[in-house]
Write a structure and sequence with these properties.
With 138 residues, the chain is mainly beta. It has one domain. 6% of the residues lie in helices and 37% in strands. The strands form two sheets. The protein has a five-stranded antiparallel beta sheet with strand order 6-5-4-7-8. Strands 2-1-3 form a three-stranded antiparallel beta sheet. Strand 1 and strand 2 form a beta hairpin. The longest helix has 8 residues.
């Protein structure tokens, strides 16, 4: 018997990112904070991308931000993306400063605009993976 192929739309969880994904399971959006320079960053990594310090720790973000930029995807032949068309690929500027790539949901395509206020929602995909996605702030 052959194992089912891994879903290409899901992350590979490793030691550096496991706390982030454990947080999403609890509906918590975690980012990294550097104790050396005071800056926050995302994506999760074991060092600060600004000063290279390894004095970083996890911190819960408040889960709000604004739409920094986006693209409406109308064509994508790869499964499972073709079943989601059209969808909004977005970069969200978190209120804490870092930017996060994700998807915009629960929004009419004609209503999408740069600068719109957003809030995170958590979309459970498997027992191990819950994705943070964004919707217009309520």
């Amino acid at each position: 018997m052959t194992a089912a192929p891994a879903r290409v739309d899901l992350p590979v969880i490793d030691a550096a990112t496991a706390p982030f994904w454990e947080g999403t399971q609890r509906s918590a959006l975690l980012i990294r904070h550097c104790d050396a320079c005071g800056r926050k960053h995302f994506y999760p990594r074991p060092f600060c991308p600004y000063c290279w310090s390894d004095q970083v720790h996890w911190e819960q973000a408040n889960g709000t931000g604004t739409l920094y930029t986006y693209s409406i995807v109308y064509a994508n032949d790869l499964p499972p993306f073709r079943d989601r068309l059209p969808y909004v690929a977005a970069i969200v500027a978190l209120d804490e400063g870092p930017k996060m790539m994700s998807n915009l949901v629960e929004c009419e395509l004609s209503d999408v605009q740069v600068g719109m206020p957003l809030e995170v929602v958590f979309n459970r995909q498997t027992d191990e993976v819950t994705l943070p996605v964004w919707r217009p702030r309520r």
